Amino acid sequence: MLQPFHGALQSRQALPTESVTLLDHRLTLARDGIAARSLEGIVPAERYLETTLHRTVVPASALRRAPSATAEQLDQLLFGEVFEVLEQADGWAFGRAVRDGYVGFVEARALGGAPQAATHTVRALRTYGFSEPSIKAAPTGLYSMNALLVAEEREGRFVNTAGGWFVEDHLAAVDSAHPDPVAVAEQFVGTPYLWGGRESLGIDCSGLVQQALYACGRPCPRDSDQQAALGEPVQEPRRGDLVFWRGHVAVMTSDEHLIHANAWHMAVAIEPLAEAVARISSRGGGEPTAMRRLD
Question: How high is the pLDDT of residue 228?
């Protein structure tokens, strides 16, 4: 029987308990007296529960701080991604996004059965799935880059999946990585800024970095402070380097320009590094805290 939730996630800076200060609460599958069975002996809890794995069956779904449609969006799940469920009640599932490890609440209707090994990923910025192998057929949804698909059959230029029929030119085999994360990020120029977003219809600064690296076959954590541990420090940035501020990240497109999803433009934009540094500093964001090279 499903048990009622024990309360919403607490402050983003709060840890599950004072005794587990070395664990990042954003990635720890525990809250309010319950924890995943795998954390027994690591995280104190009143009950340890077995988890179940489910695949995401909608084009995108918000991962929220609390079980409410108006709660803060922390992250998103894209179609085909796996969610590890610890607890379900009242139409919400509490668990962990397996791809980036982030913990939160997802609407249960966004989740389906057991995960399947993906054969393809969406390579286009966004593309429609169709109910039939025809561009005139009713669309099944609008799917963003890095959604995960399982090819079932082909007909002409279309591939059939659980999400519908897709034009194969908009897909790529999961083991076929894009060679350039900067070129991937540049495809998102003009995409609206959305806190917690990581899809082509809305994205934030760390979501842009994550999506660019995912398309290139590289793992990437969700938040900018976590991404600041990637690569090696540099003093003079070049194309592909990451530039960090307190709570913000951008990607250099050249020695002098960067691309970032930001709340000033409310969109993904390319601008001179010097202009971004001056504006962010003048608005209280301080100077860059780090520059990191991934290669």
Answer: 98
**Is pLDDT above 50 for 294?**
yes
Based on the domain organization, do 159 and 187 belong to the same domain? no
Pair (186, 289) in one structural domain? yes
Q: Same domain for 137 and 187?
A: no
CB atoms within 10 A of CB 288: 19
Distance from chain centroid for Cα 3:
28
> How many whole angstroms separate alpha carbon 90 and alpha carbon 76?
20
Host domain of residue 127: 120-173
Contact at 8 Å (CB) between 120 and 129? Answer: no
Averaged pLDDT, 37-60? 97
pLDDT > 70? residue 19: no
| Domains identified in the chain, total number | 3
Assess if residue 64 is contained within a domain.
yes
The pTM (predicted TM-score) of the whole model is: 0.91
Cα–Cα dist 52/74, whole Å: 21
Find tokens 């309360």 and name the residue. Answer: 7
Are the CB atoms for 294 and 231 separated by under 8 Å? yes
In a domain, 83, yes or no: yes
Structure tokens at 161: 């999946």
Give the Cα separation of 182 and 213 in Å (integer).
Answer: 9
